[in-house]
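Extended Data, panel c. Modelled sequence:
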Amino acid sequence: MTFEIYGNTITIEQGSTFSLSINWSDSAGTTLTLDTDNYTARMMGRVGRESSSTLFSWTSGAEITLADTNPNVLITAAATATDDLPAPTEGVYDLELVSATGVVSKILKGRLRIEREVTR
């Protein structure tokens, strides 16, 4: 099953909690069960697609929570996790789900903006 959302720009405010809720569903609109027995998730941000270093690397069990309800993917990075992100920065990101059998599905990708914190 492939489901991708392209062209989505996300903005992360340096030093603030970042939260993004996504509902991944099948072609009939039924929310998929994304329990941790069957899936893991990973999300990375880089300055460019060819960059060898990451701006951030988030995973299920840490910043990403998977569930069997709507929303079934919840990304939450604490303010302490965004505090050290370089800002201002523009880049790219993607979010992948990996099934227990090793099938990788890229479900979200796009542009990334990290904005500098004013109150620090």
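The beta strands are 10-13, 18-22, 39-46, 56-59, 64-66, 73-77, 89-99, 104-115. This feature is highlighted in the accompanying rendering.
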